[in-house]
Amino acid sequence: TKEEKQRLRKEKKHQKKIKEKKDDKEEKPVGAASQPPTQPSQKGDLAPAPAPVPVPASETPALADKPAKSKADLKAERRARQESERASKQGKKGDVGQPVPTSKPKAPPSELQPVVKRLPEHVQVDNPDVLKKLAKKLERQQIPLRSDYGYKVSLFSHLHQYSRKAPLTQQLGIPSTVIHPAIVRLGLQYSQGIVAGSNARSVALLHAFKQVIRDYTTPPNEELSRDLVNKLKPYISFLNQCRPLSASMGNAIKYIKKEISNIPSQCKEEEAKSKLLSCIECYINEKIILAAKAIAKYSIEKISDGDVILVYGCSSLVNHILCEAFEKKRKFRVIVVDSRPRLEGREALRRLVQRGISCTYVLISAVSYILPEVSKVFLGAHALLANGYVMSRVGTSQIALVAKAFNVPVLVCCETYKFCERVQTDSFVSNELDDPDELIVTRKGKTQLEHWQEVPSLGLLNLVYDVTPPDFVDLVITDLGMIPCTSVPVVLRVKNVDQ
Amino acid sequence: MELQAVLMAAGGGSRMPDLTYNTPKPMLPVGNKPLMWYPLNLLERVGFEEVIVITTKEVHKMMSTDPKMKDVKMKLDVVCIQEDGDMGTADALRHIQQKIKTDVLVVSCDLITDVALHEVVDLFRAHNATLAMLMSKAHEFTDTVPGQKGKKKTAEQRDFVGVDQSGKRLLFMANEADLEDGLSIRKSIMRKHPRMHIKTGLEDAHLYCLKKAVVDFLADNKSISSIRGELVPYLVRKQFSKTTNSPKIKDDAEDQNQKTIDGSTNHGQDEPLLQLAQERSCWNDHRGDMSEAYHGGKLRCYVHIIDQGLCYRVNTLAAYIEANRLAPKLFEEPAVHPSAVISERCQMGSDSIIGALCQVADKTSIKRSTIGNSTTVKEKVKVTNSIIMHGVTIEEGCNIQGCVICSNAVIGRGADLKYCLVGSGQQIEPEESSATRLSSLIE
Question: What stretches of B116-211 show up as alpha helix (H) in DSSP?
Answer without folding.
Answer: 117-126, 187-192
